[in-house]
Amino acid sequence: MTAASPAVLHRVGDQALAWLDAHREYFRLTDEDRATGRGIVERLKPVGELAVNMRVLAREGVAGSRQHDISVRLLDHVWRDLLDGGNLLAELQRQEPLSPVPLEIYAGLYELGHRHPGLESAIDLARGTASWQALEMVPNRRLGLLNAERMIGRVPGGDPGKVLAATWLGRMPEPWTVQLHIAYDITHTVFHLTDWGAAPDRIPPRVADYLARYLPAWTADWAELEHWDLLGELLVVDACLPRPVLDAGMWELYAAAQAPDGAMPVQGAMPAGERAEVFDQVHHPTLVAAFASAMATSRALSADLAA
C-alpha cells in the first residue's frame, strides 16, 4: 500500500478550514429562527460539527500557524457569537429538558475550556430522571450521548460495550448490505466509540479486523459514485484503524474533488446558486474534509516519526 503524501492531506484541510472561516457568518441562527423556535436544533447541528472540528485540530496538533489562528477565531465565533457564551444552549435545555442536543454540542466546547454552570446544572437535573435513561434513540447515537457525558466529567449512563453490540457495526453483518444510511451508521459508530478519533484503541480487535477487511471495497464503491461526503467519513475511519488500509490513490481522488476555494461537494460537482444556499449544501462535507485531513495528517506524521 502506498501512503498518501502528507502535503496532499494537509492541503485538503487547510483549504477546507479557509472556506469555513470565509463563510462563518452562515452558521448563525437567524432572527426568524430565534423568534419562532422552528429549526433551531437543525441550525445548531452545523455549529456543533464546527466545534468538533476545532477540537480535533487542537487535539491532533497538526495545524500550521495559519490554521491555528483560523481555528481559534472560529472557536471564539462559535462560543461568543453563535451560542452567546452558552446561553443559547442553556435556554434550549430549559425549553426541552430531555433534549440531548445541548449536551452533545457543549461537550466538545467543554473540553476546550468553555464553561456554563447554569447549563451543566440543567443537564445534571435531566440526567437524574428515569426519562433520560428511557430516551429512545438508535444505538450509535446512544454511543455519542455516553461519550458526551464522559467528556463533561460525568459517569456515562450506560455501558458503551453493550451499546456497541447493538449497533449495525457491532453485529458485523453481511458487508454487501451497506446502503447509504448504513454506511453513515458505521462511520458515526466509529466516531462516537473512539471519541472522534482520540481513542482508536476502543475499537475491539474483531471490529477493527472487520473494518480493515471491507473498508477498501466500501470506499471504492462510494468513490465510484463520487459521494465525497461519505468518502471523507470513511477516510476518517481508516485513520482510526490500528493500521490504515486505504491506498494513496483514494486520497488523491478525494482531494481532486475539492473546489479551488476549499469547499467539498456532497456528491458529484459543486452545486450552483446563491452563497447561502450553497453553504447549506456543502458545509457538512467541507467540515468532514477538515476532520479527515487532521486525522490522516496526524497519522502520516506519526508513521514518519516511527519509521
Automatic annotation (TrEMBL):
Domain DUF6895: 14-294
Protein name stated in the entry: DUF6895 domain-containing protein
Family annotation (InterPro entries): DUF6895
